[in-house]
## 1
Amino acid sequence: MARVVVVGSYNQDHVWTTDALPAPGATRLGRYASGPGGKGFNQAVASARVGAPTTFITALGEDAAADAARALATDDGIALRAEIHPALPSGTAGIFVDGDGRNVIVVAPGANEALSVDFIAGQPDAFAQAAVVLAQLEVQAGAVLAALQAGRQAGATTMLNPAPANAPTSDALLAAADILTPNETEFVAMLARHARRDVAADSLADMPAPALHALCRQLAPAATLVITLGAGGVFVSHRDGGDRGDKETFYRLPCSPAKVLDTTGAGDAFNGALAARLADAAPGTAFRDAVAFANTYAGWSTELAGGAASMRRLHGVTP
């Protein structure tokens, strides 16, 4: 049974690690590795490794990266449903990581941009079995909207991770999400776009909780927002009367301690783990418990290098 359906991107990651990120025009020596990634695939891997039966819906080219995606999905027990576009390459990402684990990333979407509404519409059995449908914005927005609407129609909880920050979001897309999970950069980008509020991303971690809650309600009145703030932890804001089993309408959780090696994929680890825990939660379970677990799981991911490769295997064991 597909308890979590993830709709999103598969990218082949190309990762360069160096002591300090190069300034414009500069060249630095470093180390190279390649492996699986893409926000969608990373989140599907996290969900599966936490222990949730997971289906991943994506688009691929007809190339070695697509072959790798199929093999990797099989290895993690993920049910892969891929729309194939022979004329397009599978997605790729160039990732540069410095000595402190910070990264900069450039993504070439390739086939991801061609994931179609028709292909989403052709997967009714997957959505019918889902407890949670999770999507991001590295595939075309129409397919994301169709997936969230299909999930909601089937009675699933819908989650949108509105990443990357420069991806377009519509009012309809935000309205289709029961839970929004931006990081600080994505949150302020959506505030500027939808609420015409100009807020600095680095101000959110220290902003008084009632003020941040008010911004959340202004952005998406009907949704629960979970803002990941890096070292600033996590902020949760529920709509009035919709606390999902929590005793508080809004609250913060501190950053989970970790020996940080590489932050690539940490947000994806958080989202996949949160979806898996929500899918498996007993009725009445506090939302806070799932967020706290996802926060810890994301911290673990920073202790390993890579995107999908950094997701810890739990084999269904609760830590």
Note: The longest strand covers residues 11-17.
## 2
Amino acid sequence: MPLDARLRDLLVCPIDRGPLLYFDDEDKLYNPRLRKLYRVHQGDIAVMLPEEAVDVDAQEHARLCAKSTADGL
């Protein structure tokens, strides 16, 4: 089950308070400004703790940015 759209609209990065990209097919929320990735557990629980964020390397950042453009995010 994808993350509820109403919740997605409210979620922001806990570090910079900016918007996030949501990839429902990967269960991920992504902050391209800080290159931080937040996982979505079981499709509906966003893990938004800064210490749980994953740093994304340049290659993954490029992939996610291209995917967001292709998906119209």
Note: The CA atoms of residues 38 and 50 lie 9 Å apart.
## 3
Amino acid sequence: MLHSGIDFRFQKKYAMTAIVLKILRTVFRLAKWSLIAIVVVEVVSFVVVVSSNFVLYGSRFEGSRARYDAYALFLHREGPRATAFNRRSGVPSRDRLLWILGGSTTRGSTDDDAKTIPSFLSHDLNRDAEGLCWTVRNFGVNSFNSLLQAKYLQKLLIEESEKPDLVIFLDGANDATYYATFRTPEAHFGYSKVRGIIESYRNRWFGILKPIYAAAYASYTRELLEKITQTMTCIPQNSPELRAFADSVTRRYDFLDRLCRSLGIEFVVFWQPTRWVETAPAAPAIRDMERRGVISADRLPAYAHNMRAISDAVIARAGSLDCFVDFRNVLTSRTSLVYREDGVHFLDEGRELVAKTIAAAIGERKLTGKAK
């Protein structure tokens, strides 16, 4: 009887051990396959994101090599880009300094410093040998929108010894792109990645896993989901959130205008042309060529809708500001291709035409570089 009792307890203990081991094996298998699934999804997302970056930007990364900046969040490692055709007379009453800020369209999607918008602008402004002598400084930073430019301008006003006579913002594409991606007025390049680093520690109950949460925010899977949101889900045209975004951008420009004028500086925003936001038709032959591209409104209707809706909302609100100029349609008279495949960045002719139109607007608005 004693032996039978021992056998029964042993069998019961063995059975319980077997159950526990079975549960552990099941949990291990679930964890293993979950980890494999996560890795596979991340790898697939990596391939999709990198491939789309090659199509849009010609490299596997969106944006350029950057360095951290306490004011502007990040800046180009190489610093401001050189501008050609600048001219000084040495006579203070004739010399003018112009700062132009924007994203990659301002910095220039070209390897030639002489063919950026700021260089073409300097060339046009300095054509009159007897007129004002302009020095144009190119403070464009790839992927910057008006939010990061506002921070950058304040940094420049604090740190630069020679203050400008005129400040120009060339905006639109990045503001629309990042609002379409993140759906918040605070959106900017890398928004979720930076937010993840800052918020993941205290906003999670198990803060020791901060690196994991931060990595999730920075993952290619999340980036792919953000790109899907940007390009495939439509923004309601009259939504309160879109109106709040347009109000935020308008307040930003109004503040910068008042700030600059308090320092004796003129400030102007040019809402840049892109193929997505034009409201006047280009020549039929040009439209047909553009439609045959890989990236077109026919293939990306939600993206086209979002770019137009966001642009319309900002122009409707900010158009009342004296410092705001609507440039949506300045390239609709084109007789050849002026946009790159993405419909945002320009070919050489496009950059030259935009610069000529800015120079003409400076003349028409009698912007002498001295705030009134």
Note: The CA atoms of residues 24 and 192 lie 36 Å apart.
